[in-house]
Description:
Blueprint: E1 2-9, E2 13-16, H1 17-23, H2 28-35, E3 39-42, H3 48-63, E4 72-76, H4 87-95, E5 101-104, H5 110-123, E6 130-136, H6 147-150, E7 156-163, E8 168-175, E9 182-183, E10 204-205, H7 207-229, E11 238-241, H8 246-256, H9 267-270, H10 277-287, E12 296-303, E13 307-314
Parallel strand pairs: 4-5, 4-6, 11-12
Antiparallel strand pairs: 1-7, 2-3, 6-7, 8-13, 9-10, 12-13
Bound molecules: coenzyme A.
Coenzyme A (COA) is lined by residues 26, 30-31, 34-35, 108, 147-148, 151-152, 205, 207-208, 210-211, 214, 244-245, 272, 302-303.
Amino acid sequence: xxxxxxxxxxxxxxxxxxxxxxxxxxxxxxxxxxxxxxxxxxxxxxxxxxxxxxxxxxxxxxxxxxxxxxxxxxxxxxxxxxxxxxxxxxxxxxxxxxxxxxxxxxxxxxxxxxxxxxxxxxxxxxxxxxxxxxxxxxxxxxxxxxxxxxxxxxxxxxxxxxxxxxxxxxxxxxxxxxxxxxxxxxxxxxxxxxxxxxxxxxxxxxxxxxxxxxxxxxxxxxxxxxxxxxxxxxxxxxxxxxxxxxxxxxxxxxxxxxxxxxxxxxxxxxxxxxxxxxxxxxxxxxxxxxxxxxxxxxxxxxxxxxxxxxxxxxx
Length: 315
Ligand code: COA
């Protein structure tokens, strides 16, 4: 497949590090030096579905495609207000599409999962035009009294439209279960038959373990797709890395021995927007005119699970 349109949507509220230091025992200096984040967008009056629909419409307009011509919609999402129906179904109705759709929860790796699934759907011969929307609201998962995790995340949505092409050169997905390093349980309805205590706890994160996993996994996945395709690091024009922590991105950059300009960044503005991070970064890089036809792009993401993934595509 190939990507022919990109779009993104952000909540209107900008929450700066200084604003966080009013409510948490933290500082702009700590957050900036440890993470690279200066501010993030956080949902206040909007709904996540509004952002998803907006990003989807922008990607369709960019692709010059009518929603009626879509053959599938995949929405990557960890949590939203609806347990059912799927967010993709809400998007489908709002944009006027008639195709089937489903949601996937690939944590922060949802975008690369979706690309790999879209590519497999296309290869099956049944589907040609696929919309991928990544929509995330981690601000509703973290404990806003806990300075360790809450400062890292932001909300947002990113989308791409894919159609037939030979531009996805390789994908590599990985999973290694370490669920208790980064997880959240949510409360379900009361059942008279269920004897287990209910739990409704905010996100639990063991930051240093996640940091080490992320760095190792990204290097391993990127090396895998490079080896599979035979491309050398110098041949890649853009490395789009999940915007979780600037220090993780710098470690990957050092390992690959590649210059700063190949690593677009927006972590300073948006923090970690989970699966929306990569399509938002892709859209920004695209709209800034930095992508030329034929450019090779590596993307890499990692997240709760642990899961990780990387891909190489030609623009
Ligand atoms: N403000 C100020 N101090 C903070 C803080 C904050 N927001 N969060 C933690 N601290 C404190 C800690 O309590 C600790 O204090 P102590 O030394 O008195 O015990 C100190 O800062 C160092 O904490 P530590 O956890 O060792 O910092 P770190 O350098 O590992 O950075 C993270 C913490 C969370 C930024 C880092 O581990 C990280 O980014 N991990 C990956 C997380 C991630 O990407 N998650 C999503 C993956 S998709």
